[in-house]
What we know:
Helix content is 44%, strand content 19%. With 315 residues, it is α/β, with parallel strands linked by helices. The chain has two domains: 5-220, Spore Coat Polysaccharide Biosynthesis Protein SpsA, Chain A, CATH 3.90.550; 222-308. Strand 1 (5-11), helix 1 and strand 2 (33-39) form a beta-alpha-beta unit. The chain is globular and about 60 Å long.
Amino acid sequence: MRPLITVAICTRNRAGLLEKAVRSVLAQINDNVEILIVDNGSTDNTAKVAADLAAADARVKFFREPQTGLSLARNLALQQAAGDWVVFLDDDAVAEPGWLAAYENFFSRLPHARVACAGGRVTPYYDAPPPAWLGPNTHHLTGPDERRPFTSKSSPFGCNYAVRRETALAVGGFNPALGRRDRFLGAHEEIELAERLRCAGYEIWWLPDARIQHLVIVERLRLGWQMRYAFSDGRSRAIRRWNNAVGRGGRTMLVVGRVSVAPFHCGINLLLALVSFPLQNGRVAVRALIQAASIAGLTCGLLRQSFCCRGSARP
């Protein structure tokens, strides 16, 4: 009998964290669930940890995707999964008690057949105390206490994200141009897939009881990393906007319009950062700096798409 759920954990160079993530799921698993680990070209001991976990428990399967790229690893998980639903859990996250039951109960009693994606709460836990300038909700995903569809402009975080396998494959899976790859801090692969699912007539649902804790390492609490991520996030948004623009004319208008206003927008945010530094422990200034980096990344990404990637969508 096919399992209802495949829990997919895509991992790269996280040997020290992978087992904790897997065991948080094994503590909740039943015969209706399998775990699938995809090693995405790790250079540390991750592959051995994954192989040992698979050898110790028949409910754990292990595959390799040698070409680096989170979307590629996630697409391999979609292809290899036996479950009707694939629930993605990050390798640096742990599932809270009741997480798997929340998904299983929902998938067993769907409100209607148009549901194709779901996700739940994300709570961070930190390697070190977060700096005062970091916004209090930066790494959280919260919502109402009842199940409901996400709004048309929102979707679950990729670290706690479920899709109906056949439907996700039918719309093309995750876009390999988006998501993490090596040093590129790409993003938006889960948002872009949710957008295509909505365009195909499907719904994305919020499951408040599907709770995870997601590790935030010290490096991510540094301003330099936040700026790098914001720039990469902007480049990822550029790929989405480029692909959503209609025809050559629409793309030309997008690039010209964005490039023409980008210096002004960046300048305003840099000025705001300068004058607001003493306010709210620097939080206003940091938000402005991150916004400037995101605008710069979006602009650079659109220019790259325009001049180097016509007809394709590589970051």
